Structures are given as C-alpha cells and as structure tokens.
Amino acid sequence: MPTDLQTRTQYLALAEFCQSIIWPLCDYVEGTASLPTATLEKMRAALQSVTSGDPYRFGQRTAAALGSYEQVRTLEEVWKTPEQINSALELTVALLDDGGGTADTTSKAKMLIDLFLKLQATALWNFEQPKRTTPPDIWELCKALKTA
Amino acid sequence: MIHEATSLFRLVESIDIFVAEHENLFSYTEATQAFFLHIHDQAAVTRNSVSDIIEKLAQAPEHAAPRYRRELIIHKDRWRTLHTYIKPATDAHTLNLPSPLIQMATEDLRRIPGMEGTAVVVLLTPELMYYHNTPQSRPPSQLAFVEVPYSQGPSFFTNLTIYHELGHYVYDSLADSYNQSTAFTALVAAMSRAFDDMFDESLKTPSTRTWAKRVLDAWTKEVFCDLFALRHLGPAFSFALIDMLSLIGLMEEETEVKFDAEHPATALRLREQLTRLRDDGWWAEVQDLPSEHVSLIARVAGKSESDYFFEFAEKRLPAFTEAFLTIVPFIHALVSDVTPHCKSAAEDFSRRRLEIEDCFLHGVVPSKLLAEGEASSPTQVSMINAAYCFYLTLLPKLMDKLEGQESYNLIHRKKWIEKLEAWTMKGIEDHQLLTATAATQ
Q1: Residue B379 DSSP code
Q2: Is pLDDT at A65 greater than 70 in this prediction?
Q3: A142 in contact with B, Cβ within 8 Å
Q4: Closest residue in chain B to residue A22, using alpha carbons only
Q5: Which of chain B's residues have a Cβ under 8 Å away from the Cβ of A4?
Q6: What's the pLDDT score for residue A7?
Q7: ipTM of this complex > 0.90?
C-alpha cells in the first residue's frame, strides 16, 4: 500500500477506537446499559502505554489504536500536554473504581465522552486531509542520543 | 443525514454489483474469490448497519445525533478505503497474472508453520511499485494481499519481487502469533536493546519515541523481507530487485548508501543478500557470470559501513545505522528459522543449470530433463534461476541462432525475453501439475 494510504488508515483505526469508547459510554449515560468496564480497561491499557512513553512495541503490529506514530501524534495534537493525557487516564481509572451508578460517575463519563469526541474529530479530519504527518521533534531526538 | 446514509447505501450496492459482474465475466484465483466473498459480506453488513442507524436516529433524542453521525462517517471512510481495493482486485483476473508464480508463492507460504491455509490475493495497482497491503476492513486473516503494477501483471521476472512483499505478511503473522518463536523473541530483544543503547532517559515524548522505534522496525522488516525472498528464490530475487529499482530510478550511485525512514540503504540490503547467497551456496554458482547484475551486487555490497548514512530533516543521525547493524544478525537467524525448507535449493540448481539453459537455447520448456533413460523435473527455483541467468548472459546466443534477430534490437530482444518468460512459466506450471499428480497417486 502506498505510504500515504497506509498512514490514512491509521487515522481511521483511531477514529474507530474512539467510537468503540464513545458509543457504550453514551449508552451508559443514557441509562440504557451498564458501565462498559471491559472497554474502559482496554482504554486504560492504551492510555497507560502512551503515558509510559512506549506505545510502540517492537515485534507487535501497530494496527491497534494508539500504537502507531500517526495515532500518538494525533493524540498529542488534541491533548496538548502530558497532563491532559494523564487526566483522561485518571478519569478512566476513577470510572473503573466507581463501578457506576452514581451521579458523579455519569458526569465523569460525560467528560470522557467529550475528550474522545475531540480526539475522534481530529482523527477523522486527518483521514480526510491526506497531508504528511508532522515530523517528530528532531531536536529532542538528537539531544537524547547517547552518542550526541 | 438520510441523504448521506442513502449515498453510502447506493455506493455499497454499486460496489457489490460491480464485483458480482466481474465474477461473472472473468476467472479469478481462489484467494481473490475469497476476498470478493468478504466484500459481499461487508456490503450486507454495511447496508444493514446504515438502515439501523437511520431507524434508531429517528427514535433517539437530539443530543444523541452526533454519535450516529460519526458512526456513519466511519462506515463511509471504511468504504472509501475499501473502494481503492476493488478495481485493482477485479483487474487481477487470471489472464492478467503470472498464475504459476502466484501458485508457487502460495505453496511456499504454506510451508511455514502456522500459515498452512494462507492464500495470496493480487491487486493490480496504478503505482509502479510493489506493496504488501492490509485492508482495514479486517478480511480473513489467511489472505495475504500483494499489489503488483498493472503493467507488470502477466510478466515474470520483475514479479519475483512479490516474495519480498509476502515477507511483510509473514513478519506480521509472526508478530501476531500467540506463540512467538525463540528466533523472533531474540530479534525483538535485540531491537529493544539497540533502542535503549541509543537514547538516554531524556527522550520522553511518546510520538518521538514511537517514530524512532518505527524507523528501526521498518528497516528490520525490509531486510527480513529481502532475505525471506532470497531464501525462496535464490539470486533471481536480487536480480529482479535490481531490475525493479533501476526501472524506478533507485539504483543511482549517489543514493546507494543512503537510508531513509522506511528503507535501509541499497548497499546494506545487497550486502546482507550477498551474505545469505554465500551461506546458502548460491553465490559460488553465479559469481563468475559475465553479468552487470552480478558485478553490481559485488560492488554495492562491498561499500564500507562507514559510508552509510541516515538523514532526516537535514540532519545526519549515524546512531540509527550503528544501532541497526547490531540487529541484522538476528534477522538472518529468524529467516533461517522460518525457512528451513529452502536450505538446499542451490544444490539442484548447481546440478541442473546447464541442462536447463540448454533447453532454453533450443526453445524447449524445461519441464523434464532426460538422464540415462529416465526423466526428472528440476525444481521451480532452479528453473527460475537458470532462466534469469540465461536472460542476463545467453539471450544473444539464442537470438544469433535465429535468422533476422539482432540482440541489440530492442523489439527483437523484448520478444525473446517474453518467450523466455513464457517457457519458464510453462515449466513451473508443468512442475506443479506433475507434483499434484504424483501427490494423488
């Protein structure tokens, strides 16, 4: 597959990942389903891999959301600081700890839905616009090289 | 939103019909038929989903509309992506393909543990390049997708590079495996070690770390794919790669030692191929051929490591190439591990090459070779390599025997290359028939 199409499908995979979170959370908020704990656990693992700095694993396929450069870059574009990524993670953990059923849980779920709607909108936009993905921070890269 | 949903419904319907019409008009490989079945299934799923969305939307509160809209957009984008696969797949009917080569590649893939049910779907791409492809619509996992330039569809020699693309499928499958082999985990450990040795703790931004890892991963995959192809095809793969890279202007002396973010330098790729050819006994068989391809491999592979460079955003990053060199031995080990069946291919070639070349010199398909009252078939790999060696060195000798044919006349030359390719493909097809017949007896 030409690189640009390969890149674009990474954005689509991210948008699908967001949808897999938004949809059951909306159902929960509307009272038509229980708290989607399995989805939240999956999301926690994905966000933790980003906050740990190592979403990309050697020897693993990057088709999963938040594993490829394009997906991580999109996430950084939307949630501009590490604190914002952390707060999404904290919300997820708090929801899992609450277990659902309280007004506070519903409000946390709504906040999480908003965060992922924004991320999804950017992912879909990036899919639409076949522009080159922003390059990495070459300055940070060179500074961290042990042989620099 | 009803209009958007209707447009998508119509698009899916029209693709579904388009595929069905082509199925009625042309003959396709079993793998392509399986892909078309997947398209029909996906079309049915989408039609139901879209109808469902509209039905639910009519009853949902107003604030719920955005998520239904997003669901619809995702369906549209999936089909937008899938749309790019349909025409290349319908174009790849059996008359437009080197079917014996695809069959051979399929059989080779099936020799790898865990890939016994794999089938190869060919897509004819408008790009002048070969690609491995993974459709996002989650097709059956045993289908390996390979894009072949439409202009090269029925030809033979350049299409040998599809083995490189199949290497991507194999590497991804090894990565997906629940039970990764020792050789694969050793490679992954070597990559992690190389990365950790390259950077200190100050490299924190997840995207920057991801990018740096992806570069090492991409280079690793490329060398794996080269060596995977080489193990199955011998030097014919290197020759085909050189021909393909030359055709698209990537065999220039100035760029031989340059790495980019997706590919290692040609010099390193050919160096590792040469190492593999020597270890597998192939190089001794071809090193003395009076061929530009052979001398090119020796010259480019001999470039000094200190000349290699990786440049990104106008900055040279030698640490990347140094780190990658520590990974390369583990790639060789993995390739040997997954292709034990290729070990002795050079022996048959050594024994049969001159006889096969003699067949070509007389315009005979080398399906069976006579020896002391009995006939036996050379291996497919021997036929392919003998054909490529013949193409590189003996084509003028064949043409000189024929009245009115001049080896420097490109029209004449083209004609006899095509004949040679046809004889080779016929030989391979016969071999496949003989093997299949023997298996049923």
Answers
A1: P
A2: no
A3: yes
A4: B67
A5: none
A6: 75
A7: no
Model pTM score: 0.91
Strand arrangement of the beta sheet that strand B143-149 belongs to: B119-125, B143-149, B131-133
Contact, B274 vs B283, CB < 8 A? yes
DSSP B161: G
Secondary structure element (H or E) that encloses residue B315, with its range: strand B315-316
Q: What's the token pair of residue B162?
A: 């599809």
Domain count for chain A, please give it.
1
Q: List helix spans (H) across B234-317.
A: 235-247, 266-279, 283-286, 292-301
List the single residue in A9, A26, A145 with the smallest CB-CB distance to B199: A145
Domain containing A138 equals 5-147
Backbone angles phi, psi at B199, to 5 degrees: -120, 150
Asked if A141 lies within 8 A of B210 by C-beta distance, the reply is: no
Q: Which parts of chain B register pLDDT below 70? A: 134-139, 369-375
- Is there a contact between A55 and A75 (Cβ–Cβ < 8 Å)? no
Alpha carbon distance A110, B18 (integer Å): 43
Q: How far is CA B151 from CA B91, B156, B159, B184, in A?
A: 11, 11, 11, 36
Rounded distance between C-alpha atoms, residue B230 and residue B338, angstroms:
13
Say which amino acid occupies B26. Answer: F
**Residues B240, B226: contact at Cβ < 8 Å?**
no
**Which of B125, B207, B330 is the best residue to mutate to test the A interface, defined by the most A CB atoms within 10 Å of its own CB?**
B207
CA atoms within 13 A on the CB side of B197: 16
Give the minimum alpha-carbon distance from A90 to chain B in angstroms, rounded to a whole number. Answer: 18
Angular region, A132: left φ>0, alpha ψ -120 to 50, beta rest: beta
pLDDT of residue B42: 93
Instruction: Write down the H helix ranges in B306-394.
Output: 318-338, 345-361, 380-393
